[in-house]
């Protein structure tokens, strides 16, 4: 195995310019946005361009990014680039199931659309949120945020390429997160526009709703190996993929789980689909290229070609 497709998380603040250019220049991308629009009941132009209205953006952001990831995968396939392994983080885990052949695209989109409409905090009287937090070298998770009530560990996105810190996701009640952040330099915390506490126990009602909806979905065993970001393992059966969808709502994600398992499966090059992970922000155990604009397609195809040529020479 060699090339992996890596799909990242929901991103409420990405610049849509690259995706708009892909939509305008690549028929395969337009086709996917059109299909996602039909399946979800949203205007494809809204999905590709985004909205200035925070409420609309919250309902449609995941759908737009899912369309982008699926469309970019289709463009790469047209250019002869197919993944030997796929895996995703948060939103990307669900889209990865479609790319792995473990779930129908339409059903994944309908799940995203259906759950977005009713998504909200556990207790409307107490705002929730999440924050990207810098974990300084030498500190453990527990030393950093302790056992503070109302704050949960939501994820670890790995070591920054500078080697100076790890980036964590903390979730919980907004007031508890703000109280924690007040004890550190301002640059240690970047608050998200997200209005729910993702990947933590406060999402148990959303987990139950996802479990109810996925019970009616047509999952199959993955055709392409699919790696988890919830634990360091491959999801080799329909049952495991189905369970991953609901677990993904309340359990922490870790980029290391995903990338280390990919490395063990023989991955030597990763392709990150869409504006879903910080570009060149975090270390991977293999080189990665990012595709979220038309010019990146050629770059990814060239990187795959160079990689395959190098592997042939080594062989």
From TrEMBL:
<protein>
    <recommendedName>
        <fullName>Malonyl-CoA:ACP transacylase (MAT) domain-containing protein</fullName>
    </recommendedName>
</protein>
<dbReference type="InterPro" id="IPR001227">
    <property type="entry name" value="Ac_transferase_dom_sf"/>
</dbReference>
<dbReference type="InterPro" id="IPR016035">
    <property type="entry name" value="Acyl_Trfase/lysoPLipase"/>
</dbReference>
<dbReference type="InterPro" id="IPR014043">
    <property type="entry name" value="Acyl_transferase_dom"/>
</dbReference>
<feature type="domain" description="Malonyl-CoA:ACP transacylase (MAT)">
    <location>
        <begin position="20"/>
        <end position="281"/>
    </location>
</feature>
<dbReference type="GO" id="GO:0016740">
    <property type="term" value="F:transferase activity"/>
</dbReference>
